[in-house]
Amino acid sequence: MDLKSSDIISLISLIIAIGSAYFAKSSSKQANRIAQENLNLQHGMVELEISQSIEGAKSGINEISMVMVPYVVKETGESLTSEEAAILGLYRKNFNAATQTLINYYDSACSKYIDGKVDKIRFKKTYKTEIRKLIENETLKEYFNPLTSSYKPILNVYSEWENLE
């Protein structure tokens, strides 16, 4: 069998093509792995931001609540002065604003869940109970009327998780 130079060139070209395909596949796998790691990192950063925002809002509510307690006790005992009543009124406004801030953070978190910007399994494990308590809390019913609520993402996530048919 006589090998011509064109046969040798063809064989070398075949070997180079096979090598190139292997390296391209390897590079593609590595690029996909890096992209997945970056996506996981991005999800982690978003989840950390959500957690910090919600915990900060809860802390604000707790601080206002602690300051309000003596005034509420006096109000219940009907020994509240007019000045203290005015102060309590301001604290109640702050408390309501802090509550709305907390609900806004949950709403934003649920929007990110719906948009796929967080790990859905981990998000559900972390927030399912909290969102259920939020929606089912009698004192917060005014915020979650299905017809008038501006917090649709929370209602949609709650419905998705709780109304499994």
Give structural attributes:
165 residues; mainly alpha
Instruction: Please report the total strand number as a whole number.
Output: 0
Give average pLDDT, whole number: 91
Which range does the strand content fall in?
Answer: under 5%
Q: How many domains would you count in the coordinates? A: 1
Find the structural class using helix and strand composition: mainly alpha
Q: What proportion of the residues is helical, as a percent range? A: over 70%
Low-pLDDT stretches are: none
- N→C terminal distance: 73 Å
Shape: rod-shaped
Main sheet: strands, sense, barrel: none
Number of helices: 4
If you compute it from the alpha carbons, what radius of gyration comes out, rounded to the nearest whole angstrom? Answer: 29 Å
Q: Report the order of strands and helices.
A: HHHH
Report what the structure shows:
- With 165 residues, the protein is an all-alpha fold.
- The protein has one domain.
- It has 4 helices and no strands.
- It has helices at 5-76, 82-114, 120-136, 152-162.
- Helix 1 (5-76) packs antiparallel against helix 2, helix 2 (82-114) packs across helix 4 (152-162) and helix 3 packs across helix 4 (152-162).
- The longest helix has 72 residues, at 5-76.
Secondary structure layout plus pairing:
Blueprint lengths: L4 H72 L5 H33 L5 H17 L15 H11 L3
Helix pairs in contact: 1-2, 2-4, 3-4
Nutshell version of this structure?
With 165 residues, the chain is mainly alpha-helical.
